[in-house]
Amino acid sequence: MTLNNSEYTKWVACWGMATSITKRTEITYSKDLTLRYPVKMCFNGSKLRFRFSNLTGTEDVKVTKAFCAKSGETEYKPLAITKDSSKSFTIPVGQEIESDELPFDVSAGDTIEVSMYFADFTQMNAGTALLTGLEKGYFAYGDYAESKDLPDDLSMATNIFYFLNTIDILTEEKNHALICYGDSITCLDWPNLLAEKAFKNGRGNVSIIRRAVCGTRILRQYDCITYQAYGLKGATRFPIETNAAGASAIIIHHGINDIIHPVGVEVNKFRPWSDMPSVQDLIDGVKKLYIEPAKKMGLKVWSATLLPIYGWRTYTEDRELVRKEFNEWLRTSKAFDGCVDFDKAVCDPQNPKAFAPGCDSGDHLHPSDKACQLMADAVPENLI
What we know:
Elements: E1 10-16, E2 20-21, E3 29-30, E4 33-40, E5 45-53, E6 61-63, E7 65-70, E8 79-80, E9 89-91, E10 96-98, E11 102-106, E12 111-118, E13 122-123, E14 126-129, E15 137-141, E16 155-158, E17 160-162, E18 164-171, E19 176-182, H1 190-200, E20 206-212, H2 234-241, E21 247-253, H3 256-260, H4 279-296, E22 300-304, H5 317-332, E23 338-340, H6 342-346, E24 347-348, E25 351-355, H7 369-378
Helix pairs in contact: 1-7, 2-4, 4-5
């Protein structure tokens, strides 16, 4: 049961993604397409607003219509999401926009569905691919934005979240958001498991906002279409992705791709050895690009140690030394408000360079389902 609307005075982000360049394929446009994204609500509230992103697009994107509805109800009641009172709106190239406020009574635990329909040819450049098995969306050929069900023969699940970037809720003053910022490892299940833990811990006053892009680095980015989906560099990403209403803290788990990507132009023309950072390069980057701006925003900043890479295809002892020394700084630096020691949670105590038994997904870089649970458990209670 929701509270009286007078209790709701604070806008807080209750769900969020990063925005990156989607993986380049021969097909970059869609037409006559419906996208639908189910989102479990973590707070009670009386209004919603939606941020749409075309940050990495090179053309304007026209949303023919968009709707929000509660799933699972006998009578499906989609309400139009509007911008400047219009049911059809444009997301300008390289920009993010915020919808009008939508009166929408929500209780914690409800699942809402955000549906968008694109009648015209639409450039599908702006989106984020997740690796989690706990969160997905759907697409359908045709206009089903207002339909309760998507037709089985014309729809499929997708792990790519296009255009929908953040959902805010007008809620109680006690509620706040925790940003999880990172790369493909943060695209896995641990933020979802952390959200479940936060929801069940009896307080239920924190949302988990995932800002993660597979392959992204702190210091550099790729401008070739082969690796464009690996995302924007930290200097570009961070000011945008920390834009989350009601955020009080951020966990930064970033830097492993800076260490493992460079191989030399004789092996890969896009990955020169000059991209290989020193430990000090990583430290300076985190201080300047992440800690300083986050503190100015009033956020508590928590570091998170990098996971083992022993056995990964580009593993060397030199890379391991960089990871080890960088992790030591992440654990001990007074620049942070605390450290989430993911490395300790999943490494083998007998061989700290490697994952513990059962914690390796198989590629010696990404954590298993078991490890994702250990990572969620490693986040201190005072953060959630």
